[in-house]
């Protein structure tokens, strides 16, 4: 069975080198680490819940894609193994492996956009067309009539209002790809 990683308690802030964050990382519903990006341009900092347990050997890859081996916690190994099994990605003409920093940063991006979309859906009609999420304000607010008008006036778009989190998630992921 493939593990499922999620974040809770995501707090973002502006730092010297962009956006930073603090979050709790969960694997299959169990808290496994506190994660921080202090927004200074360096790697993420993981404080593993099992850091005081005996160390295990972790096979991973450096930023150039070369195999490396080091000792760490069992949960750290599980995350590296999970990331090692993910498909490689193309970026700027290069094939890259997804590492824990990249993977967790994407979880933060997804959680942040999901939070913003849900906040906008309280007062505006939110649509996605392709990879672009937009909002539409109506004086009448969000009503069945304004939702119908948004659908009629934007036939290529999907109205996101009323979708469950599970239904909304693929659209948020699509928007992040664009």
What would you report as the Rg, rounded to the nearest angstrom? Answer: 19 Å
- Strand line-up in the sheet with most strands: 1-2-3-4
How large a portion of the residues is in β-strands, by DSSP E?
35-45%
Helix run count: 4
* Spatial separation of the terminal alpha carbons: 30 Å
**Strand tally:** 11
Average pLDDT: 92
The ordered H/E elements are: EEEEEEHEEHEEHEH
Shape: elongated
Regions with little confidence, pLDDT below 50 for 5+ residues = none
Question: Tell me about the biggest sheet?
Answer: 4 strands, antiparallel
Oligomer: single chain
Features:
four-stranded antiparallel β-sheet; three-stranded antiparallel β-sheet; 178 residues
Structure, explained:
With 178 residues, the protein is α+β, with helices and mostly antiparallel strands. The protein has helices spanning 74-85, 100-121, 144-153, 165-177, and strands spanning 5-15, 18-27, 30-37, 45-48, 56-61, 67-72, 89-91, 94-96, 125-129, 132-136, 158-159. The chain contains four helices and eleven strands, in the order E-E-E-E-E-E-H-E-E-H-E-E-H-E-H. Helix 2 (100-121) packs across helix 4. A hairpin with a 2-residue loop joins strand 9 and strand 10. Helix content is 32%, strand content 35%. The protein is elongated.
């Amino acid at each position: 069975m493939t593990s499922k990683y999620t974040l809770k308690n995501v707090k973002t802030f502006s730092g010297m080198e962009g956006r930073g964050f603090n979050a709790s990382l969960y694997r299959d519903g169990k808290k496994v680490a506190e994660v921080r990006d202090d927004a200074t341009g360096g790697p993420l900092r993981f404080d593993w819940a099992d850091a005081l347990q005996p160390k295990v050997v972790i096979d991973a890859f450096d930023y150039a894609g070369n195999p490396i081996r080091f000792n760490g916690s069992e949960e750290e190994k599980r995350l590296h193994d999970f990331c090692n099994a993910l498909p490689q990605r193309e970026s700027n003409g290069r094939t890259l492996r997804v590492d824990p920093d990249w993977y967790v940063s994407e979880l933060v991006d997804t959680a942040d956009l999901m939070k913003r979309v849900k906040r906008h859906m309280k007062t505006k009609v939110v649509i996605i067309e392709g990879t672009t999420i937009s909002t539409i304000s109506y004086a009448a607010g969000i009503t069945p009539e304004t939702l119908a008008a948004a659908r009629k006036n934007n036939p290529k778009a999907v109205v996101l209002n009323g979708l469950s989190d599970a239904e909304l998630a693929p659209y948020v992921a699509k928007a992040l790809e664009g």
